[in-house]
Design brief:
The protein has about 90 residues and is of the alpha+beta class. The radius of gyration is 17 Å and the shape is flat. It has two helices and three strands; from the N terminus they run ββααβ. The two termini are about 25 Å apart. Helix content is about 20%, strand content about 35%.
Length: about 90
């Protein structure tokens, strides 16, 4: 299995040849018994596992592995893929 190399990071620079990369969190949560009007900001679901990823491909691969778990397939847990802060990087 090969791993992709990300471009080197350039800190604090905003030159025109840069691309903004987004980091991702993959979160495995418990599903609440009563799921009416779900508001994650007011009362978030209990987190079981949180994994960070530096690329969307890596995050989707981790989420796919979580989705293969029995508790997720049975509907008792949920997998969430969340894009968090942007960072700048050279091409």
């Amino acid at each position: 299995m090969r791993t992709a190399q990300l471009p080197r990071q350039c800190r604090g620079s905003t030159e025109p040849g840069q691309v903004a990369l987004t980091r991702f969190l993959v979160v495995l949560t418990d599903v609440r018994a009563q799921d009416c009007g779900r508001d994650e900001r007011a009362s978030p679901e209990r987190r079981r596992q949180v994994v960070g990823a530096s690329s969307r491909v890596a995050a989707e691969r981790i989420a796919g592995a979580f989705m293969a778990l029995g508790m997720v397939r049975a509907g008792r847990q949920r997998v969430k893929l969340i894009a968090i802060g942007r960072r700048r990087s050279r091409r």
